[in-house]
Write a structure and sequence with these properties.
By secondary structure, this protein is of the alpha/beta class. The protein folds into three domains: about 5-65, no CATH class; about 95-245 and about 460-525, FAD/NAD(P)-binding domain; about 250-455, FAD/NAD(P)-binding domain. The two termini are about 30 Å apart.
Length: about 525
């Protein structure tokens, strides 16, 4: 395809050979483009309609702002200035000064949280030349994963989870254990030279509309045990504390009277205790309230340690097997030998969500057939399943609710075989000293109770950290708006200089780039807040 003029820009080249679409009959191809402000890529899908080829979908996105190259490839840093320079510092000295923001230096962007959201945003901003600092209350980078329950392994495969600028090695396992991911996150921050203060908290964040900057007090406990308080004036704050908010722990009568071994939220569950031979003859009773990923993993952990386990399922859960996820749902885009991650992201995110949803309704008919034996076994065991919003399955459960699903890695067969018991459709009325009473009067004995009941909306964390004024100013976060697109994440939050970033590794990878480009555009004066 030769170069041709387009409104607002120019199509430069077609990237890759056009191919026949595997879901909607037609032709799809990638292309690059240039406008007066930026260069980017696009993906076009053509469909035949009564003998004529028509554009079915057309998606374009910015990759780079003109005259603002990312510090990669030919624009990478030199690393040293050769020649005589009296008093010059070596790399380690310069890194220490950069991390500490010495001599009155200030970050342009302050990121709250150093998990996958904070790290991906910091990496994108760094490559665009935006001075950035992450603050995190944990002792170490990766503790948001390291401190979770003992048996946690990611349910998403590696091909879906790569990080920007530094993908996982080719020898990396398909499913990543939590502690291995935590180690990778530490290495990621080190190798990309990202600035982070761990053991740090913020307070008194105030926005000045005249200077269009924040005043934020950061309290930092340093590695030598001393504490310092710094007042910073970033122009941007990114809340990267996870796509959810504070943990949701239902208020129930009798919690204070529980006399068992443990009652906690799943976020505080570190692992089941091995009951040994004694557990085989007189097993302790564990109850897990909830029926999504964490609940199943925790129930399986209890069972493997010798407990009698019951899952309390109050409504229904969308369940699909891990093999259905990798071999049907993700394989066309994210798989060994499949498209590059950048191309795969374009193929998925280049569809309007309404079109993607229609496709997923069809895909999940295949998934349901593939998983029919597993699903029938669950239903017979009293575990209630669903097909997601409008039958669209996993992805739209995640987009619209942020949860409500389980990717099966073994617990479904344990339920079907009666090894993990199910108490379905009953609301809890009261916690007893050694169990649970339901509203219908039935009771369930328990030595340990874990509430795998999820988390509140992201704004609840905004309110806890920044107060009512900011929390009331920002828009609703997560879920789909009236146009069927994601609400507020990675875009205008409703308050100048404040941004939300979060989600799984795949969403953080893709949308961190748009978040960083918007901030760079504001800093370069390309557009004003609220125009993009």
């Amino acid at each position: 395809m030769s170069s041709s003029s387009t409104r607002g820009g120019q199509v430069l080249d077609v990237v890759h050979e056009p191919s026949i679409g595997d879901t909607t009959p037609g032709v799809e191809f990638f292309f690059t483009l240039r406008t007066s402000l930026a260069t980017g890529r696009g993906v076009c899908r053509l469909a035949e309609d009564q003998g004529k080829w028509k554009i079915f979908t057309l998606y374009t996105r910015i990759n780079d702002l003109n005259d603002c190259p990312r510090a990669i490839g030919p624009h990478r840093p030199k690393g040293v200035e050769h020649g005589g320079q009296p008093g010059r510092k070596n790399w380690n000295d310069r890194r220490r000064a950069a991390v500490d923001f010495e001599n009155g230096q200030e970050p342009v962007a302050l990121i709250i949280g150093a998990g996958q959201a904070g790290l991906t945003a910091a990496a994108r901003l760094k490559m665009l030349g935006i001075e950035t600092l992450m603050v995190d209350q944990n002792e170490r980078i990766g503790d948001n994963w390291r401190q979770r329950y003992h048996q946690l392994v990611l349910h998403d495969p590696i091909w879906y989870d790569h990080t920007p600028y530094l993908p996982f090695p080719e020898s990396w396992p398909i499913f990543t254990p939590k502690d291995k991911l935590a180690q990778f996150f530490e290495a990621y921050a080190t190798l990309l030279e990202l600035n982070v203060w761990t053991r740090s908290t913020i307070s008194n964040a105030e926005w000045n509309p005249d200077t269009r900057s924040w005043t934020v007090i950061v309290t930092r406990r340093k590695s030598d045990g001393t504490t310092e308080e710094r007042t910073l004036h970033p122009r941007h704050i990114i809340q990267a504390t996870g796509h959810s908010g504070k943990k949701y722990m239902p208020e129930m009568r009798g919690v204070e009277n529980f006399r068992g071994d443990r009652l906690c939220h799943s976020s505080g569950f570190t692992g089941a205790l091995d009951q040994g031979p004694k557990g085989a003859s007189n097993p302790k009773k564990a109850v897990v309230v909830g029926s999504c990923n964490s609940a199943h993993d925790i129930a399986q952990d209890f069972l493997e340690k010798g407990y009698h386990v019951t899952i309390v399922q109050r409504s229904s859960t969308h369940v699909l097997s891990s093999s259905a996820l990798t071999d049907i749902l993700l394989k066309p885009a994210y798989s060994e030998g499949g498209p590059t991650v950048d191309d795969a992201d374009m193929l998925i995110h280049g569809l309007p969500l309404s079109v993607l949803k229609a496709r997923h309704i069809e895909v999940f008919k295949r998934v349901s057939e593939y998983d029919s034996e597993m699903l029938q076994g669950l239903e017979k065991a009293g575990f209630k399943t669903d097909t997601g919003h409008d039958g669209a399955g996993l992805l739209f459960k995640y987009f619209q609710r942020g949860g409500g699903y389980y990717i099966d890695v073994g617990a479904s067969k344990l339920i079907a075989d009666g090894k993990i018991h199910v108490n379905q459709g009953r609301e809890i009325a009261k916690i007893l000293p050694r169990g649970i009473r339901f509203e219908d009067g039935t009771e369930l004995d328990a030595d340990e109770i874990v509430f795998a009941t999820g988390y509140q909306n992201m704004r609840t964390q905004t309110r806890a950290m920044f107060g009512d004024k900011l929390a009331d100013a920002v828009k609703d976060v997560w879920g789909l708006n009236h146009e069927g697109e994601m609400r507020t994440m990675w875009q205008d939050s409703g308050h100048p200089g404040f941004w939300f970033h979060g989600g799984n590794l795949a969403l953080c990878r893709y949308y961190s780039e748009f978040l960083a480009l918007q901030i760079k555009g504001l800093e370069e004066g390309i557009y004003a807040y609220g125009e993009c």
